[in-house]
Design brief:
Order of helices and strands: HEEEHEE
CATH architecture: 2-Layer Sandwich
Shape: globular
Number of strands: 5
Strand content: 15-25%
Largest sheet: 5 strands, antiparallel
Number of domains: 1
Strand order of the largest sheet: 1-2-3-5-4
Distance between the termini: 36 Å
Number of helices: 2
Length: 115
């Protein structure tokens, strides 16, 4: 999608602090971190949200959840103490960029409710 900032990051048109990349996925540091470690994991293919995974993308969904997120969390030193994984869907869900992305947050206590 031509005007999508995350598509541009995936295509390396916009620089980012990449921490992981493979053929289908890229992970990079958030520009406005909400925790000491805040990494975004996105598919290179433009999908708006988890609602767009569908059956045709279930291999990609499994790869992100079973392979990429655990590998990134471990590489960032989050595995021992824990971390949070969040994805927002739609306006009321707090989604501000209309490209599927998972936040990996850690490096501090992630209490709920936040405070």
């Amino acid at each position: 999608m031509a005007d999508c900032v995350f598509c541009k990051i995936a295509e390396r048109e916009i620089p980012s602090a990449v921490v992981y990349e493979d053929e289908d996925v890229i992970a990079f540091r958030d520009l406005e971190p909400q925790a000491p470690v805040h990494v975004l994991v996105i598919p290179k293919k433009h999908l708006e949200s988890v609602l767009d995974f569908g059956k045709e993308n279930k291999v990609l969904a499994a790869h992100i959840l079973a392979d990429v997120i655990p590998e990134v969390a471990k590489a960032q030193g989050l595995s021992a103490k824990g971390f949070r994984v969040v994805t927002n869907v739609g306006e009321e869900g707090g989604q501000t960029v209309k490209h599927l992305h998972f936040h990996i947050l850690g490096g501090r206590s992630m209490q709920w409710p936040p405070g």
